[in-house]
Amino acid sequence: MQKIKVGVFGAGRGTTMINELANHHEAELVAVCDRARPLLDKVKEMATKKNISVALYEDFEEFFAHEMDAVVLANFANEHAPYAIRFLRSGRHVLSEVLPCETMAQAVELVEAVEQSGKVYAYAENYCYMRNTFEMRRRYEAGDIGEVQYAEGEYVHDCSSIWPQITYGDPSHWRNLKHATFYCTHGLGPILTITGLRPVQVVGFESNANLIRAYKNDMPIVYGIAGLELVTLENGAVVKSIHGYLKREPWGHNYQIYGKRGMMETDRWDCNNKMSAYIESGKLCHGDLTHYTPKMESAAIGTGHGGSDYFPTHYFIQKILGRPDGEKYSIDVYTALDMGISGILAYRSILAGNQPVRIPNLRNREERDAYRNDHACTNPAVAGDQLLPVLRGVEPLPDETYEYVRQLWKDGKNAE
After folding, report:
1. Domain boundaries, given as residue ranges, for the chain
2. Whole-angstrom Cα distance, residue 192 to residue 2?
């Protein structure tokens, strides 16, 4: 059997996909592109140990020209859509890391590139494949708790200590330009894949700003802000999704699903393993409560993010091959955009004083035209004259902040 030839764009976050592809019996890792030579050197070392041939590129155009059937996009989180569109139009399948798009115009262009190309687009939202969220999906589909009425998704990660290593002190880095609700799919995504329902309306909120400082020299590092989306699903259920820079360690994620005959939730402090389920019996307010650790496929054990990093790449390959599991479990472009544009539109809600905003169904072509030229976002390079503010009511960080963070990055240090 001829293996599917796959390239990876981005050798940082792409490390997991690189390792999975190097070991996959139905795929062949053929090329990796990154501007950081040390990351490419690590790939070279791995390839040498495994006795496989992998082309390494610092230049994207050379990488793009390499013969491959599919590509994994693990570049900056706000830049996936333009590259996905280009690869799809060139006849290659695409696995996109988080997030699917930066603007509504990109969302429209992406969905039409998928439809016109006929190629597989898959979204690598790994939190949908956590041991517990994957188990919740199976049990919800089996009808264990009945139809959802209310759900919560939570992803809290204070990145201030590692800020030098993930932003490099670059004021134009996407993490320094993202609004409060942009990085929403870790919280909302699992709820959508568990229930299989589409979001139809969102109300957005953001917390007050926490000016996080480095303790050693009292230098400001970043404004810690949490984003919150209240999302109405197509069946009338309500979802609360929260994410951002709140103080808790270890960082974590938590999910709760309340159905008409029971509920499921993850353990807040052992979120990768333990979960609970309550199923009402034939008598009102009486039922069975269980606490347990779901099983995980052996192939996923030991991979990143509690084993969940294995599944997006695996099901992407399976979908390309036309396998039923790939068709079922690979996240398609429509569901990916349901997740992503909920955060984009939640910020519109915030700017409008927390007013409800309708979420379009981009499966319907007639709903797309209103957004074809909607480039509004917080990135000056993309928004043009539709630029939105990053922060409201707070002073921008001084240049000294970026100089300090950049020096920490150069020295290989974290903030303290």
Report:
1. 4-125, 127-297+333-386
2. 35
pTM of the complete model: 0.96
Domains 4-125 and 127-297+333-386 share a fold: no
Please report which helix (H) or strand (E) contains residue 81, including its range. helix 80-89
Half-sphere CA count of 85, side-chain side, radius 13 A: 14
Mind listing the pLDDT tens digit for each residue in 311-333?
999 999 999 999 999 999 999 99
What b/e sequence results for 190-213 when a residue is b if at least 16 CB atoms lie within 10 Å of its CB, and e otherwise? Answer: bbbbbbebebbbbbbbbeebbebe
CATH topology of domain 127-297+333-386: Dihydrodipicolinate Reductase; domain 2 (3.30.360)
Tell me the DSSP string of 106-156. HHHHHHHHHHHH---EEE--GGGGSHHHHHHHHHHHTTSS-SEEEEEEEEE
CATH fold for the domain made of 4-125: Rossmann fold (3.40.50)
Over the stretch 165-194, which tens digit does the pLDDT of each residue have? 999 999 999 999 999 999 999 999 999 999
For β-strands 27-33 and 4-9, DSSP reports them as parallel
